[in-house]
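Q: I have 417 residues here and want to know how they pack in 3D. Can you give me a structure?
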Amino acid sequence: MNFFRKHKKLTIGLGIVLVLILAFFLIRRNSPAPASQFQTAEIKRGNLTASVGATGSVRAQSSAVLVWEANGSVEKVNVKVGDRVSLDQVLASLDKTSLPQSILLAEADLVSAQKALEDLQNSKTTTAQAAITLDKAQKDYKKAYDYRQSLNGKITIKEVTIVGGIPRIREHKGYADAATIADADNKLALATAQLEDAQRAYDRVKNGPSAEDIAAAQARVAAAQATLNMAKILAPFAGTVTQAIPAVGDQVAAGAPAFRVDDLSHMLVDVQVSEVDINSVSIGQPVTLTFDAILGKEYHGEVVEVGQAGDTVQGVVNFTVTVEITDADELVKPGMTAAVTITVKELKDVLLVPNRAVRFVDSDRVVYVLRNGQPVKVKITLGQSSDADSVVASGDLKEGDLVILNPPSQSGPFGGG
């Protein structure tokens, strides 16, 4: 206490200095930040590309895993991985001596069925024979008919007697008995049925074989060929061998995998697009693709199919969109993961604001514009967006305005958020 009384003037001076320092910091804290502390960007007009991004796996347009259809020993393997194959090319075959009997017999069945089909398509014998049969049936019918008609009236009955060793013939009129008439009726019915059969047979072949007969003969050929083909692996379409398992001498069982063939001329990527974005995606839109497995290279493509029904997984609805790669090369392989960017809209000469500058304040989108060295909050409405910029649909912004990219927090004197 003696010290304070003794140095009263000094104590009062120090107190005044402390009050001034405290006041300075309080005023500084509540003063707007100097313009030099802000990062700014100039509002400009330009072009904006709106896009939808997704990832997916590459697949070939056509792909098939081929398996053996019979047990046996591998006799020949004609292709290896990377070879291009044509439709129905034989990729591998089994030794005949190791095949089941049903397949061995199919070879004979095939020869017989092919000959029958050839005869049906080319031979005139069937038509000629049918005509002869029809002519005979017509004659037999006329004979039976005439005889039956003759029994409807009186008939002449000849009676032969022997008088003194000499035969004497006596004629008199009479009527046919019931047994004779019944026999004639039966013969006429048989002749009628045979004539109808002969007429139908002739009608079938008079203009050549019918489509039904040819189809039946072709089906027998196809059945025999299918059984015979169980001894080999055939390419189901033109493509590239991407997997090859068998080796000569292997013992294989029905159902064992042999090859995989892919049509690498058309490479597709299936991606999942959110229900929020699906209505902006349409067939023909351009696409860019990148691969983690292929560094420093960008590929291009287009949307070829847009799913019309969504799939719900854990409450999220996605739609399948298929993209075809238009410039795929040998580096792009089925199963690779691709990052896909679909360009859904391109806008020209629009007012753009950086996405970094946009904030939410009280459920409104706002930006802070630097005017006269001070930040000013401006409410805006946005249109289409890209990764970096958005279109200014409405708001007090004009070309050349400086928007603040790092506005202070909402607790500052002019808000933020």
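Q: Anything worth noting?
A: Residues 126 and 205 are 7 Å apart (CA to CA). The helical segments are 2-6, 8-29, 101-122, 125-150, 178-205, 211-229.
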